[in-house]
From TrEMBL:
Keywords attached to this entry: ATP-binding, Cytoplasm, Kinase, Magnesium, Metal-binding, Nucleotide metabolism, Nucleotide-binding, Phosphoprotein, Transferase
Active-site residues (renumbered): 115 (pros-phosphohistidine intermediate)
Protein name in UniProt: Nucleoside diphosphate kinase
Family: Belongs to the NDK family.
UniProt source species: Paenibacillus yanchengensis
Compartments, as annotated in UniProt: Cytoplasm
């Protein structure tokens, strides 16, 4: 089963959207495998966003994601990476499709509420930054029969 790393960013937490965001993934029929409320230190943030080092938005991005608590999760399901990216919407709230999280709730690219891994390689690289394997559960998801 494909896995992905999802993180509700500090703006999503502060705006009271944890439940709303989790609800969208739950209602889709995806399976929650792990969840953790934490504040990122600079080292973890740098590891997470290493692919963006040197870009113009890198420093503000690090400052933003370390500015307050985040809610980190692992979700699973067939095509979970593509499905969660579709539910989240494009990076820029202006071009994100209506009905996506970023279109419905975000205004600026810099504060776009939620992160989702963009490939299997990145998901498997990001998950261990936040979770050890024993913190990730494995259970029969009975809803799978219906979706
Ligand atoms: P994320 O990694 O957070 O899920 O977002 P993403 O894939 O949609 O976008 P990505 O290109 O990976 O960029 C990571 C985060 O950096 C900020 N960003 N700002 N001002 C800009 O042009 C710009 N581009 C990216 C956003 O917060 C984005 O989510
Ligand atoms: Mg990304």
């Amino acid at each position: 089963m494909e896995r992905t790393f999802i993180m509700i960013k500090p703006d999503g937490v502060q705006r009271g959207l944890i439940g709303e965001i989790i609800s969208r993934f739950e209602k889709k029929g995806l399976q929650l495998l792990a969840g953790k409320f934490l504040q990122l230190d600079e080292e973890a943030a740098k590891k997470h966003y290493e692919e963006h080092e040197g870009k113009s938005f890198y420093d503000p991005l690090l400052e933003f994601v370390t500015s307050g608590p985040v809610f980190a999760m692992v979700w699973a399901g067939d095509n979970v990476i593509a499905l969660t990216r579709a539910i989240i919407g494009k990076t820029d709230a202006v071009t994100a499709a209506p009905g996506t999280i970023r279109s419905d709730y975000a205004v600026h690219t810099n504060f776009n509420l939620v992160h989702g891994s963009d490939s299997v390689e990145n998901a498997e690289r990001e998950i261990p930054i936040y979770f050890s394997e024993h913190q990730i559960v494995s259970y029969e998801h009975t809803i799978q029969r219906w979706i």
